[in-house]
Amino acid sequence: MKRYLVTGGAGFIGANFVKYMLAKYTAGIRIVIVDKLTYAGNLSTIQDELNDPRVTFIKGDTQDQGCIAEIFKQHEIDYVVNFAAESHVDRSIANPQVFLETNIRGTQNLLEAAKSAWTAGKEKDGYPVYREGVKFLQVSTDEVYGSLAKTFDEARELVLHDAEMKRLVKDRVSMKTYGDQFFTEQTALDPRSPYSASKASADFFVQAYAETYRLPVNITRCSNNYGPYHFPEKLIPLMIQNVLEGKPLPVYGEGKNVRDWLYVEDHAKAIDLVLHKGRSGEVYNVGGFNEEENIQIVRRIIDTISDIMMREPKYQTLLKTDLNHINHSLISYVQDRLGHDLRYAIDPTKITTELGWYPETPFELGIEKTIRWYLDNQDWVNEIVSGEYTNYDERMYQK
Ligand code: NAD
């Protein structure tokens, strides 16, 4: 029996990870979800899992020492997967304080609780000695690396510098790229926003616990995720919703900023692999080989929705506008975000070659699946949108 503590499991990626793990490991697994249920965490996202006897849900804050210590004591946790975070860059610009509290203090509190619970006071040569088979996995982001240069001239074929990776990814994934620089695990951290500064600090604490106390840890640094249950303030779900409502689609600046997009289930698979097969103490970058300018993402969403609506007229009842209005004229350029990073691009050679992971879902397939999920789950969206988000400035939309 393996027992997982999944923090932030009522949020977008955490919930998708829990769903993936429960489906994959039908026996021998227990998951304790701890989530503060901020505006971004919703029990409706994990409704089925709450009824699963393998899952325990605890409403709690990762900064709460008593609560976290009690969870370790009660549930004999083997793995911690720390998703809990304030995750929205625009919110971090408006209110950095809570990012420091949750993302840094919360992570350090979890590290300390794991250290105490997993050693039970045992030491050798002054270092703590840990129970076999335990690990702390910090879910981090490519944003800690800062921003890459980009040439807008033309997309060119990515020259994969590793033959093994080339074989693995074959033509399953888009290999377009907007530059020849990539983030590797050796890239120096250079966070630019309060969000990425808080995530980088948390990464340093994780590394410090590994070095100072020999805590078994991994850090994964992933690019932008998309998929079901993504909170509607983020780029892709916001655009889908605005298309359905016939509202303008706000695009920062000229829409030329480049992000790498990964289907969320592929991220869950990567975390599962790193947790069980990753070398202790290592950082693994996780990326989708799927760089795209924001404007191209927005255009694709418009085109895909329009296409689905024409092929399957039953979905037209979801439209609050005329089908003819679903076109690129909905795009509305708005003032750029402060300090908007130009390009993020991940080099996932290490996880690909060491652990055999690769992004399995091509973007064309993933985006259609995602759009269909939103079309089929408007009740979920409405429940979320009727809450705190309705008071939120709709211009603020990106990760
Ligand atoms: P999210 O905002 O959808 O979910 C965060 C969850 O954490 C919510 O359920 C929220 O209620 C919970 N939470 C917040 N503060 C908490 C606290 N103090 N104690 C307990 N729970 C708390 O975020 P997400 O997009 O699912 O991201 C999850 C993690 O993955 C984050 O650490 C983020 O930095 C990282 N990440 C996200 C992306 C992405 O594209 N979304 C990419 C790479 C890495």
Can you give me a brief rundown of this structure?
Helix content is 39%, strand content 17%.
Q: What gap, in angstroms, lies between the N and C termini?
A: 36 Å
The tally of strands reads: 16
Rg estimate, integer Å? 21 Å
Mean pLDDT figure: 89
Outline: globular
Structural class: alpha/beta
How many distinct helices? 13
Helix and strand pattern: EHEHEHEHHEEEEHEHEEHEEHEEHEHHH
Order the strands across the largest sheet as they lie in space: 3-2-1-4-7-10-14
The main β sheet shows up as: 7 strands, parallel
How much of the sequence lies in strands comes to: 15-25%
Low-confidence sequence ranges: 150-168, 170-174, 390-399
Helix content: 25-40%
> What small molecules accompany the polymer chains?
nicotinamide-adenine-dinucleotide
Family: Belongs to the NAD(P)-dependent epimerase/dehydratase family.
Keywords: Lyase
Organism: Marinicrinis sediminis
Domain NAD-dependent epimerase/dehydratase: 5-287
Describe the structure.
The chain is an alpha/beta fold. It has helices at residues 12-24, 47-50, 65-75, 89-94, 97-119, 163-169, 194-213, 235-245, 264-277, 294-311, 349-355, 363-376, 378-385, and strands spanning 2-7, 29-35, 55-59, 79-82, 123-124, 127-128, 135-141, 156-157, 176-177, 217-222, 224-226, 249-252, 258-263, 283-286, 291-293, 331-334. The strands form five sheets. A seven-stranded parallel β-sheet has the order 3-2-1-4-7-10-14, with helices on both faces. Strands 11-13-15 form a three-stranded mixed β-sheet. Strands 5-6 form a two-stranded antiparallel ribbon. Helix 2 (47-50) links the parallel strand 2 and strand 3 (55-59). The longest helix is centred in the first third of the chain and has 23 residues, at 97-119. The two termini are 36 Å apart. Bound molecules: nicotinamide-adenine-dinucleotide. Nicotinamide-adenine-dinucleotide binds at residues 7-8, 10-14, 34-38, 40-41, 61-63, 83-87, 102, 106, 139, 141, 199, 222, 224-225, 231, 399.
